[in-house]
Amino acid sequence: MKYAPHLEPCPLPYSPFKSCTVPRPIGWLSSVSAAGVENIAPYSQWQNLTFDPPMVMFAANRYPDGRRKDTVLNAEETGWFVWNMATYALREAVNLSAMALPPEESEFDHLNVTRVYADNYPVPMVAESPCKFECRYLNTHTQRGASAVGTVDIVFAQVELIHINDQVIRADGRLNIAEIAPIARMGYFDYAVIRETFEMRVPGADMEAQAGLEGRS
Question: Alpha-carbon distance 152 to 68, whole Å?
Answer without folding.
Answer: 9
